[in-house]
Amino acid sequence: MPEEKQRGLYRGLTHYGDIEFSRYLRRSFARSMGYSGDELNRPVIGIADAGSGFNNCHRHFPELIEAVKRGVTAAGALPIVFPTISLGEPFLHPTSMMFRNLMSMDVEEMVRAQPMDAVVLVGGCDKTVPAQLMGAFSAGRPAIQLVGGPMMTGRYEGERLGACTDCRRHWSNFRGGDLSVDQIEEIEGQLATTAGTCAVMGTASTMACIVEALGMMLPKSATIPAVHADRLRAAEATGRQAVWLAGQGLTPDRIVSEKSIENALRVLLAIGGSTNALIHLTAMAGRLGIAVGPRQLNELSETTPVLVNLKPTGTHYMEDLHAAGGLPAVMRQIKDLLHLDCPTVTGRTLGEELERGKPWFDKNVVRERSDPVRDKGGLLALFGSLAPNGALIKCAAADERLFEHEGRAVVFDTLEDMAERLDSPDLDVHPDDVLVLRNAGPVAAAMPESGYIPIPAKLARQGVRDMLRISDARMSGTAYGTVVLHISPEAGLGGPLALVRNGDRIRLSVSAQRLDLLVDEDELARRRAEFDSRARQPLRGYAWLYHKHVLQAEHGCDFDFLRQAGVGGEQAPPG
Ligand code: FES
Ligand code: MG
Asked: Which intervals hold domain Dihydroxy-acid/6-phosphogluconate dehydratase N-terminal (predicted)?
């Protein structure tokens, strides 16, 4: 077949056993959509639309996608929009995390199966961007990411409100008795007032920044507010760029490398980003055969300052970061720590892109190197007898007074157990105790964002606002507190977390990067012999597939059969 007949709409013909018939039939059905013959001969740019009525963060996608199409058309190609699964964070049961891999499979297979020369991935809400890129990395077609951008802040009695750090703060004030029902209802109506993703440096914003750092998105486009006209201009420019990528055949594996993944980790640390991003970046990298490990994180953490003063760790919001110079301003501050020779979707290197932008930045939001928010260690992996394969703490969002802490375990065996007993007046709990939640890991419960264990009501009313909390769950990127997450192996697989009993002593040492259960080995061996997993294998459907194939947090919670062979030497969970 002549080469031009393998591109655009003629790419990957449907098998009918007669190539000319396949071509004729595809042309005929494409014409039924009203395309002229000329259009059918252009390169095709697929636009993966993750809009959904169940996704408030993406409610502006119709307008955004029109702008992408405009850019594609202006550059001489044919834009074709196709839907994929959408993951609206608060609308999914039991947790959106369970469906990230499903969405990644949808994206991968549809990008590969349908005739497109490049794809624009339009996503935003937490899991959508990693899912799209995991899929696109595996599909191996030229791809470029466009995000929806962050929400604008709302107001309550003159105070700025941004989802969802302020959601949590006001909710804990309400639980502590400082706000009335009427007040919390009024706040509820002002927390999320525009289209776009959460207004703070939560998971969605963190992922957007990481993807810009990886070179898979146009420069300075991660932070543009959802409702700003610049967001539409970025969408149009993304459409144009996709046509260029298609012409070059520039696939993601030629952009993303070990060095650009390291850049993304540096950026994750410098922006004080979400703990979830480490899981997602690990999964994304794994699709290209690149390993990311907790120990690598700690090495980089030792030398990367936290420079962005945004909630949940600081005071400002995403719209402020954009006005302050956006992500390029942050990357310019840590230029000496980045691999500047990494390529990007623009065809220029990261270093060239940073040279091009305006050097001005607002020092209140993006701190100078000489005046960081923290001089190092925004995120830290922990090891020890309670977390042989690692756990994670966001030091930047935690209370330093609890960094070296030993306390008595108060154990909640499951999420249901926690919901039932946490606020009971009979709960035997003191402010110095360590709250333990288990059976909330990837296999047992699809790893929900419940690691931000609420302060028990009776302590909240006494004014306690933080305690050491540990679990095999995740937490929202918008949350804060002294919270140890992603303990691996999880309790459901018989990790040491499963063996903790009420009253055991647990010790956290941030300086030693350790989390330990202070119980002697004989006693632990006795408990281990009695262990019975609560992680039950579902009988059918996606839940069955998920449960059988999901990997632990240190492997990005990807499915064993989706990672590129040989990454990390991981084992599938039993069952
Ligand atoms: Fe979509 Fe927060 S709920 S980004
Ligand atoms: Mg979130």
From this structure: 42-352
